[in-house]
Every structure is written in structure tokens, then in C-alpha cells.
What we know:
It contains eleven helices and eight strands. The protein is of the alpha/beta class. Strands 1-2-3-4-5-6-7-8 form an eight-stranded parallel barrel, surrounded by five helices. β7, α9 and β8 (206-209) form a beta-alpha-beta unit. Cytidine-5'-monophosphate binds at residues 9, 11, 33, 35, 115, 118-119, 156, 178-179, 188, 190, 208-212. Cytidine-5'-monophosphate is lined by residues 9, 11, 33, 35, 115, 118-119, 156, 178-179, 188, 190, 208-212.
Amino acid sequence: xxxxxxxxxxxxxxxxxxxxxxxxxxxxxxxxxxxxxxxxxxxxxxxxxxxxxxxxxxxxxxxxxxxxxxxxxxxxxxxxxxxxxxxxxxxxxxxxxxxxxxxxxxxxxxxxxxxxxxxxxxxxxxxxxxxxxxxxxxxxxxxxxxxxxxxxxxxxxxxxxxxxxxxxxxxxxxxxxxxxxxxxxxxxxxxxxxxxxxxxxxxxxxxxxxxxxxxxxxxxxxxxxxxxxxxxxxxx
Length: 236
Ligand code: C5P
């Protein structure tokens, strides 16, 4: 799994849109993320199609249910050959362990990472909507440690939390960071954002970038600019 490439979030409405989008990159092998929008529209075969085309695939379905159901879902997903999968840490340790069991039953070696707090969640929403009085960073580090105890490979987190998570878990515990915005680009619905260069210097292990690439006038150029900043740690 080569995380020196930004992971492109293919939040697109159909298999046709997704395959057309990746075809703009001609011979380049990408690391793409299939989330709920595309997976539910195009079906599981979009993952195998992208894999067959030589791309790495992050299947971001954020599983969150009782352990038995998540075990079964993970067993079904194991057939697709995704490189990375997500579950919600809020589902609990037993649920995260069940996800690993389901994948293992299906013979898959996919890495599983946990969502801690969505990067669209602010400190105020944590307090007012989840009734959690703890600082956001404490909630995130607590969930990260729970995920590590369950045997997961890492977490999805904001760049602003990456260093604290590495300190609370281990340096090789993956910190996969969405909410990436090149300087001056639209934040949209994200609350905890960072530039690619900042994410690199703050200890993210991988970055996930959606709209700044998919909605760009020239997605290939936008991808290369963001990749250069991520790899060098210097925003242009
Ligand atoms: O378009 P944008 O760059 O905001 O896309 C970010 C992607 O990362 C989306 O696909 C979103 O679902 C995903 N994500 C996120 N925050 C999380 C976990 C996943 O934004 N905590």
C-alpha cells in the first residue's frame, strides 16, 4: 500500500463517472477511495474494476452495527480485494474485532482503520449533539487507542490530531487524513482542515483528497500539485 500518493476520494454518482475520471490519468496507477455514494450507486463491482485496472482501493463504507452484522459485512467485502476498509470506532472494541474476524474468514488481508470523530465534527457539535464534554482531541485519542487494542491498523483523523494519536498509540499506527485543502481552496462542509504540506509535517501517514481534485478544472494538474506538496511537506 503506497501512501506516498494522495488517496483520491471518488465521491461520484456512478461507475461511468468514476471510470471516466480515472481514465484522465492515462497510465498512472492511483490510490482511490470508494465511499458510500459511489459504492451504493455502482455496486461492489466498482471496487474489483478499479483493482483490475491496477489502482489501489480504499473502500470507505464506515461499518457501524452490532458485531455479528459487521462480521458478516466484512466477510462479504473480503471478496473485493480492497486494500483499506473503515469501521466506526464508536461501534466498540467487539465490533472492530468482529470486522477483522469477518475479513480473516474470507481470506482477506485488507488493512482496517477506524473512524474516530468525523472531520466534519466540531468541538461544539461534540458537546451539543453527542453530549461529550471531553475535549475533541481526548475523544479522538481514546478511540484511536481502542482501535489499536482491537488490532486495527490505524485510524482516520484530522492532520491536527495525527501527532497526538501517534503519541497515544504507536508511530506505525496509520493516521489517514481527510479534510485536506490546498491553501485558498473552499473548505465546504469540513471543520478540521489542513493543507497537504501541513498534513505531512504534522504526522499524517496518508492523505485523502476529494473535491479539491475531483471538482478542479484540471484534476490531473491539481492531483500532481497536491502530491508534490504532500511528498515534500512544502505547500506551493
Ligand atoms: O471532498 P473532500 O476532500 O472533503 O472529501 C473527503 C473524503 O473523506 C470524503 O469522501 C469523506 O467521506 C471522507 N472522510 C472525511 N472525514 C472522515 C472520514 C472520511 O471527510 N472522518
